[in-house]
Amino acid sequence: MTIMEEIQIKLDRIRKALERLSLDAVYLKRQDNFAWMTGGGINYVGLGEMGNCGLLITRDSQYAITTNIEAARMRDEEKLEDLGYPIHCQTWYENAFEGETIRRLVPSGKVGFDHGNPAGPNISNEIRLLRFSLTESEVERYLVGGYLTARAIEETIAQARPGDSELSIIGKLAHRIRETGLDVVSAMCAADDRISNYRHPVPTDRIVRERVQLGGNMRYRGLIICCTRLMNFVPVSSQLASQYRANVEIDCTLMANSIPGQSFVSALEAGQKAYEAHGYGEEFKLHHQGGPIGYAGRDYRVDFSTPGLIQENQAFCWNPSITGTKSEDTVIATSHGIIPVSRPVICPVMTVTVEDQTFTRPAIWEG
């Protein structure tokens, strides 16, 4: 599938949504939506939510709107005009140009936005739903990003040693991630008892002694990959090995029940039952279990009120945890089973069979 074919599929989705919402256009300026509509392009300078170039999509045309600061790069590197987005450019201080251009191109004024704007309704939730079912080329990009992310995290944790600080480990991970062209969206590192004490261990100057956990969310051409790995510098006890295996089996249960056409809640309920079956029912309450992923770190953190059905080729990152362990990898749900995205690259593995599906998952590394 070419990028132009991918973009056309998405234009068709948007135009059907415009008809349903009785709108004549939508203006997309968030970095996640820009990446989605350009096959992985970048419209941001920092890592903020909003970009510096917007895409105006009408019932029969599409355009880019930006400033003279960004126009050359949008044309030369993002290839917007080649992708079918003629560029409307303003001098950087012409603050009214963006709104005036939208009004000129959409005289009816019936425009939705993917962000708050007094000129029209915020339809970001409706746009997000259109992103869920990945195209063939998005799946291919996701697998590349998954490999690069897992390899970077595993190479980094493989080189960690007692005496390293969490911050120094994160610094080495960030270097590996950036040199492969990915962005660090979030990165977590926990040494020793911080693994048990905190579900979201932002890195500190804490020194690693016996154990370390490393993971996070990385962005590759707009798509976000999430995974976590664990390293022990002392022998893994039988209790820890048993707990970790139970944790992974809970994760695989969530994956196995991520079935297109089924509800998000049904997968969550299966995961909760797995916690209970392994004797960890109370642990379910201590942290959210994750959910759909894609152009956002999590499109939803699934709970018992989450509406909707799982779509074909929808990405997920479930992240079940038991105090002291965590299992977390990105996968894609299809009607033919799960496609692993952040599969183990160099770390030791374990095999888990859940509901007649066999998964190859990362084991606790012993350094």
Radius of gyration: 22 Å
**Computed structural class:** alpha+beta
Order of helices and strands: HEHEEHEHEHHHEHEEHHEEEEEEEEE
Shape: globular
Fill in the CATH topology of the largest domain. Answer: Creatine Amidinohydrolase
The tally of structural domains comes to 2
Give the CATH class of the largest domain.
Answer: Alpha Beta
Main sheet properties: 5 strands, mixed
Approximately how much helix is present in the residues? 25-40%
Question: What is the overall number of helices?
Answer: 10
Give a count of the beta strands, DSSP E runs of length 2 or more: 17
How far is the N terminus from the C terminus?
Answer: 43 Å
The CATH level-2 architecture of the largest domain is identified as Alpha-Beta Complex
> How do the strands line up in the largest sheet?
4-3-2-1-5
CATH level-four homologous superfamily name of the largest domain: Creatinase/methionine aminopeptidase superfamily
Strand content: 25-35%
Mean pLDDT: 98
Low-confidence stretches: none
